[in-house]
Each structure stands twice: as C-alpha cells, then as structure tokens.
Design goal:
Layout lengths: L6 E10 L2 E11 L4 E5 L6 H8 L5 E10 L2 E2 L5 H7 L1 E4 L6 E5 H13 L18 H14 L10 E2 L5 H15 L3 E5 L7 H14 L5 E5 L3 H4 L6 E6 L2 E6 L2 H9 L2 H11 L1
Parallel strand pairs: 3-10, 3-11, 6-9, 9-10
Antiparallel strand pairs: 1-2, 1-4, 4-5, 7-8, 11-12
The structure holds adenosine-5'-triphosphate and magnesium ion (MG).
Length: about 270
C-alpha cells in the first residue's frame, strides 16, 4: 500500500452560503482501498461528497483536494468525473426520455474522449465505443449485477424503485470504471436482497483498480462490504479512524463516545 494515494484531501474547509461546514478534513484514498465514512446527521458527510464532485454551491475556503496528484479545485464537476472520480448520489435524479443504455453510452463516451477536446469548444470526437461493443459490455455488467435485460431500455430513474435507482448507480459505476468511487448512502432503502446485490457489485468492482469511499449510517452494509478503514465524522472533521471493528463499536455505543473524545482532545 505504498503507492501514491489516488485521492488526497488536505485540511479541507468548506462553507455553504457563508457558513463553515467542513472544518479541516484530511483523508487519503488509494486504489484497492475501501473507506467507510460514518457520523451523525448533519456532520458534513454529504457536504464532503458534494465538494469532492465539484458542486458549485460548496465553497472551498481552505485546503486542497488532489486527484491523481493534481488539484481538482478548479475543475468542473464533469471534468472530475471524466478524470475518474465517480459519485453515487443519496437522491439520484430522474431523466425521463433518456434510457439507461443511452445515458450510460453517452457517459462512457465522455469518459473515453481524450482530455484535449474537453472544454475547447470543439465537437466531441466521433469515435467513442461502437454500439455493438457497448451492448455486450452493458450486458456483461448487467449480468454481473443480476439485472433484468429490460432495465437498459427504461428511462433513467423514471419510476424506478429505491432499490432500482441504487442498482442503476452501481451499473453506471461498472460501466465507467472510475478510479475512485464515492457512494453517499447507497444502502439506504434497500431490502436485504438488493443490499447484497449492491454489495456484491461493489466488491466485484472494488478490486485493485478502484478505491471506494462509502458513506453510510449502518453497520449492516459493512457486513457485506468489508472496509479497510472506518472514519467517524463529527462537526465537519474526521474525529476518529480505525479498522472495520470501529463500525461495530459505533453500532454498540453510538456516537457519543466519539463526541466526548473530541471534547477531551479539544480541551
Ligand atoms: N446547500 C446547503 N444550504 C444550507 N445548509 C447546508 C447545505 N448543504 C449542507 N448544509 C448544512 O450543512 C450541515 C451538514 O449537512 P450534510 O448534508 O453534509 O450532513 P450529513 O452528514 O450528510 O447528514 P446526513 O447523515 O443526515 O445525511 C447541515 O447543518 C446542513 O444543514
Ligand atoms: Mg448526507
């Protein structure tokens, strides 16, 4: 694990509408590592995820985010995702009129397009993945995630059940092969079977080529996705880090002992 981390977050401070939410967050994620980020409601987990992806409402007031050795602070959200950062949202949006297959093909072609054509105003290169090749890639990934064939033809997230939305996101991850994937509460609202499918999907994809940052409230998903590290965020900062056993301790003891530890260390 001596390789340079894919993602380096250094003393990150972030404000939303003038209010400081993240107050000095540092974290490193290498390929092949699974990090779980836990913490009470409102501690800033989603703020962190949105900031990583370049949501314009989140203002970085101090610190830096390096992805593959380069600061991403000046990069737009779409540039970050083309570079290989991926985010599965807590509340994915529906895109009526755009099928899952079309959406994924467009997204993959954007990811494959050479960086030089980005932002230059030139039309995107006509190359991209040939339709036939794309269809077999999609079929292979859908099989891996045990998804029904008809799924690809449905409009993205339009009328999808909670579980289907989550699966669609995992499918997107499988097709785009990001270097670092951030998942915000991908486990919420999943029944046991769907949870296992999502977890199997993440495990199948998480190999040496991808690092994962999994934001979750529940120890439950960590029974299926074994994290290498567990971090607890309190009040905009990672207050405590440990191994997989830390999640079990949190389940048993709640967050109070972390908060108390924070007060002790602050005094
Ligand atoms: N766009 C925004 N406008 C105003 N306040 C915001 C905005 N986004 C986040 N906040 C505030 O930042 C704080 C952290 O919110 P965030 O959503 O990051 O927490 P979280 O740890 O993801 O919580 P949860 O576990 O409930 O998902 C909250 O007090 C929230 O109200
Ligand atoms: Mg959240």
């Amino acid at each position: 694990m001596s390789q340079t981390p894919e993602l380096v977050v250094k003393d990150l401070h972030v404000a939303v509408e003038g209010k400081e939410i993240l107050k000095g967050l540092s974290l490193e994620v290498r390929k092949g590592e699974i990090h779980a980020l836990m913490g009470p409601n409102g501690s800033g987990k989603s703020t962190f995820a949105n900031t990583l992806m370049g949501h314009p409402r989140y203002e970085v007031t101090h610190g830096d985010i390096l992805f593959k050795g380069q600061s991403v602070l000046e990069m737009e959200a779409d540039e970050r995702s083309r570079a290989g950062l991926f985010m599965a949202f807590q509340y994915p949006v529906a895109i009526p009129g755009v099928s899952v297959a079309n959406f994924l093909r467009t997204a993959l072609n954007a990811r494959l397009a050479p960086a030089a054509t980005n932002g230059s105003g030139a039309p995107p290169a006509k190359r991209g993945i040939p339709p036939k090749e794309f269809r077999s890639l999609l079929q292979e990934k859908m099989k891996l995630l045990r998804m029904d064939d008809t799924f690809a033809g449905r409009y993205l997230n339009d009328g999808f059940s909670g579980g289907e939305k989550k699966r669609a996101e995992i499918l997107q991850m499988a097709v785009l092969k990001p270097e670092v994937a951030i998942m915000d509460e991908t486990d919420s609202g999943l029944d046991i079977d769907a949870l296992r499918i999502v977890a199997d999907g993440v495990n199948a994809l998480a190999g040496p080529a991808m690092g994962v940052l999994l934001i979750t409230h529940y120890q439950r998903i960590l029974n299926y996705i074994k994290p290498h590290y567990v971090h607890v965020m309190v009040d905009g900062r990672i207050q405590l880090s440990g191994g997989a056993e830390l999640a079990l301790e949190l389940e048993a003891r709640g967050y109070d002992f972390v908060r108390e530890g924070k007060e002790v260390s602050a005094s």
